[in-house]
Amino acid sequence: MRSAALSFLALTATLRHRVSAQALSAAAVSEVTARLAQGAQKSWELGTRAESLLELDVPQFSVFSATPLPPPTSVPSNATSAIAPVFSIAHNVVKALNKSSTPQPLISDDGAAGDPPAIGVAVLLANWTGQGASDGLDYAAAAKSQLDYVLDVVPRTSDGAISHRAAQVQLWSDSVYMVPPFLAYYGVLSGNTTLISEAYNQIKLYRNYLRDTKAKNLWKHIVLGTDPSDGGNDEGHWSTGNAWAAAGMLRVLATMKNSPYSKSFSNQQKDLASWVKEIHSAMFSYVDSTNIFTNYADTPVNSNGMFYDTASTALLASTVYRASLLLNDHSHLPNAEKCRKALFASGSSASSQPTGRTSSSGSASITAPASSASATTAPLADLVHFTSDGWLSPVVNPHQFGVEGSESPEGQAFVLQMQASYSEWVAGGSIGANAARGTAVVGWVWLAGCVVVGGLLVFV
Ligand SMILES: *[C@@H]1O[C@H](CO)[C@@H](O)[C@H](O)[C@H]1NC(C)=O
Ligand SMILES: *[C@@H]1O[C@H](CO)[C@@H](O)[C@H](O)[C@H]1NC(C)=O
Ligand SMILES: *[C@@H]1O[C@H](CO)[C@@H](O)[C@H](O)[C@H]1NC(C)=O
Ligand SMILES: *[C@@H]1O[C@H](CO)[C@@H](O)[C@H](O)[C@H]1NC(C)=O
């Protein structure tokens, strides 16, 4: 009985700490943002960084804003410094291009044809707001060259799905975040509805290939294309890949919805909404009591070296807040709130949280994250899932998807997306929070019931 009472107290303490976890402070966000800026080098990291900064710092230029698309053609003076890092990404990328080589991707140094279009939204925005007038760069030509490359040069499946790789036809769930949002944004800014349709069509094709009905509709990570020199398949249900797919679909949906073409794409928006929900239902059916996803959602952490991944957890949670804001669909908010509270948990609730690296036997070990900043002054020092200098932890190695890593630029971007979407959801009145509170109440009632029953047992 004593041990039951102790575990009751421990559980009570855990719930209290989880409930108290708030959004990150401004100082903490600026640490996370600084690590992202340091770490983001690869094409998709730059693109994701740009989109995350727009969401968080200049929301009126994000596709998720209620401001109609196309966006304003000029940047108001109170937003110029906030948007500067986004334009700087576009500037550096376009400046490095060889203009006489066209069509070409925005960055050509990796074999992933499907990643560079992620920078396209920043480049299109730079063109739209006239950045070329001050730096002399031709952003429109760079975007057009990237568009032509992805549509006309990159190989496809026989039914038209654009490969993620340049050297062979291979489909990655990641691509859903990188390519369709660029096509849709390009379509809206240039008034070309064929491109908006193509964004939807690519997602539909990718879902046909990657959705796994044998795993409750989780998406596989990589199918087709078996050339070992170009990387093999990965039919596992990679958590980040599922989150990329949901997040990409929501970007396309928001781009359609906020555009003048919303009505003519209403059926497509309905499909996208249901496909996002399909991923949410699948993913949350597998998360364990830590509310942090494992690197492959349906593989438990004690199996075969599997580890917890906070990066996918942050991106997936952000898509739930987005779905709530965009679609009035609050069904998974209780899940997202649990994820967010686990991600932002403070040190006092550490015992309930997976941290650090897993041991070679695969069981989760509880180790303090490495730190390189003064623990007494760092704004993130008390948070279990951040190093004191602001890196999210534990995370998958973003350049080697089966392996645990230590510093993930995309993970940093996902934290910003979660912070942005969560803050907007709170500002909008936390609609659907009652469902989350209802779950907490049920938990307390359940606990109270246990105590009463436990007490009765003692008397018997
Ligand atoms: C700039 O001002 C507008 C209108 O007053 C406001 O809506 C917007 O949030 C401000 N933007 C920034 C980045 O402060
Ligand atoms: C630029 O591209 C053109 C056409 O592909 C090529 O002939 C030229 O060598 C390239 N220039 C540089 C500096 O790489
Ligand atoms: C570039 O911006 C101009 C408006 O400044 C617009 O007319 C043009 O369609 C844009 N090009 C692309 C590729 O979006
Ligand atoms: C829309 O874009 C596609 C792909 O670049 C192009 O083939 C087509 O001509 C464009 N349609 C219009 C109406 O501009």
TrEMBL record:
Annotated segments matching region Disordered: 348-368
Signal peptide: 1-21
InterPro entries in alphabetical order: 6-hairpin_glycosidase_sf, 6hp_glycosidase-like_sf, Glyco_hydro_88
Keywords: Glycosidase, Hydrolase, Membrane, Signal, Transmembrane, Transmembrane helix
Polar residues bias: start-end ranges: 348-357
Origin superkingdom: Eukaryota
Chain ranges passing through the membrane: 441-459
A Gene Ontology BP annotation from the UniProt entry: carbohydrate metabolic process
Low complexity biased stretches: 358-368
MF (Gene Ontology): hydrolase activity, acting on glycosyl bonds
Protein's recorded name: Six-hairpin glycosidase
Lineage: Eukaryota, Fungi, Dikarya, Basidiomycota, Agaricomycotina
